[in-house]
Amino acid sequence: MSNSTNEKVRCLIIGSGPAGYTAAIYASRANLSPVLYEGIQPGGQLTTTTEVENFPGYPEGITGPELMEDLKQQALRFGADIRFGIATETDLSAAPYKVTIDGEKVIETETLIIATGATAKYLGIPDEQKYAGMGVSACATCDGFFYRKKVVAVVGGGDTACEEAVYLAGLAKQVYLIVRKSYLRASKVMQERVFNTPNIMVLFEHNTIGLFGENGVEGAHLVKRMGESDEEKVDIAIDGFFLAIGHKPNSDIFKPWIETDEVGYIKTIPGTPRTKVAGVFAAGDVADPHYRQAITAAGTGCQAAIEAERYLSEIGK
Ligand SMILES: Cc1cc2nc3c(=O)[nH]c(=O)nc-3n(C[C@H](O)[C@H](O)[C@H](O)COP(=O)(O)OP(=O)(O)OC[C@H]3O[C@@H](n4cnc5c(N)ncnc54)[C@H](O)[C@@H]3O)c2cc1C
Predict the structure, then answer these.
(1) For 66-86, what is the mean pLDDT?
(2) Which residue of 69, 143, 159, 195 is surrounded by the most CB atoms within 10 Å?
């Protein structure tokens, strides 16, 4: 992987979501001449949404694509080198760390900021695409506010699904929790919270097979005890359909070198974006099973760039 023609940089950032662009702003202002690869989704997850109302600094809200373009322009203004390209392989066995781009070009870097995000899991039914941004969401914290006093469904049976259901129950009139199995996988505490919340109705042993509605989600087609002799079709009227069946952190190419949890979230030293590999940092959703917000991603991107600057000055590079 290594040869004398490899490009050598001081700071390489992988990913162009709020974490990556914020790291690029800080790293370029600290004279680290960062190179950032945008990956398959330039601008990250927020480019798939319309209104973002909770990113500080935009009192009237802003669309996701506009917010990400602003962050990109801010990074470019300070000289960040932002490029198309996907990191396809890494060798973090020793510094300088090597990252292959698009299976061809190898970059050697003294510091690496991993900001590759996480992807929400969907059920895989075509209607999720059809109603994307029109009633289908994978983030209750982001979109719950739009469903005040309305009826929503949450899909999933784990802790996240229960948390999202309880959160939404504080805003919506009625919440259905759609659970495939006959029990919840969530912790006892979370289960109790769900069962003690009067406006949550748990629909055990229900599968979602479709959504319906004219100009947005108006309901879901469910099947109770699917595949059994007593299977039954059930339609529910809802305004919003929230997926809470997990996320997949985009960490596979780093796994040989970097510790992850059982889901694939990169483990960092608590309270910092540091990994166990000196000079390699992780920021944003790829290392965050808890918050997964644009502002927290930006915050850890900032931390990662500051850490990279300090590390370089410590090693005299
Ligand atoms: C529909 C939707 C609506 C949302 N609404 C809100 C909201 O209103 N408010 C809020 O705070 N949050 C919202 N979120 C959550 C928010 O988008 C995320 O928390 C945030 O984008 C995470 O930022 P990130 O920088 O960690 O990664 P991401 O935004 O996930 O970006 C990851 C980046 O890494 C790149 N990448 C991945 N793998 C590679 C690779 N191998 N090589 C190179 N690049 C790679 C991708 O191309 C992408 O650019 C929403 C999410 C979704 C999906």
Answers:
(1) 98
(2) 143
